[in-house]
Amino acid sequence: MYLAVVIDLYSRAVIGWSMQSTMSRQLVCDALMMALWRRGFPRGVLFHSDRGSQYVGL
Fold it and tell me: Among 5, 3, 2, which residue's Cα sits nearest to residue 49?
């Protein structure tokens, strides 16, 4: 199982996550969409990743 987590850098709270049996772009997209929904689709946010292969094309 693979876990993708989106953390708010200010509060250090987990605001989005996704778990799947494969490491794919969809894993990351699901975690990011959860974070955006939970924050009400804010404008001007910054998403920082470790630039792994699953993040290519986001």
Answer: 5
Q: How far is CA 44 from CA 2, 20, 28, 36, 41, in A?
A: 28, 29, 19, 12, 10
Q: Note the residue count of the chain.
A: 58
Long-range contacts of 11-15 (CB under 8 A, 24+ apart): 15/39
Quote the pTM value: 0.80
pLDDT tens string 1-55: 999 999 999 999 999 999 999 888 899 899 999 999 999 999 988 888 777 776 6
Contacts 24+ apart (CB under 8 A), 44-47: 47/6
